[in-house]
Specification:
This protein is mostly helical. Helix 1 packs antiparallel against helix 2 and helix 1 runs antiparallel to helix 3.
Length: 109
């Protein structure tokens, strides 16, 4: 497998996992979300280790990778917004029942 194909494989894996993470977050399936976060580590590691290899690709290949990276970034931003909403909802419920974060993470300092 050449470098372009390998980068695309990992980038598309990250795109697919991000969509699954959005689904897990909106359905409040925390176990699945944690599992998906663990599954993406290999692809993230590969891309981080091979970022410099982008310079060896043709302009057309870099453009394709750039388009996928932008789409992944947009969906990751949406995931961030979904998680903020979900966490905001959790904070609101904690406040209603009188359970603050300090009580939840009290380590007796």
């Amino acid at each position: 497998m050449n470098e372009f194909d390998a980068l695309m494989k990992h980038l598309m894996t990250l795109e697919a996992l991000t969509e699954q993470k959005i689904d897990a977050a909106t359905s409040r399936n925390s176990n699945r979300l944690v599992q998906l976060l663990q599954e993406e580590l290999d692809s993230l590691n590969y891309i981080n280790q091979h970022l410099l290899d982008l310079a060896t690709l043709s302009p057309a290949q870099r453009k394709v990778i750039g388009q996928h990276a932008m789409r992944w970034q947009e969906r990751t931003k949406f995931l961030h917004d979904v998680l903020q909403t979900q966490l905001g909802y959790c904070d609101f419920v904690r406040m209603l029942i009188g359970n603050s974060h300090t009580q939840a993470i009290n380590i007796d300092l």
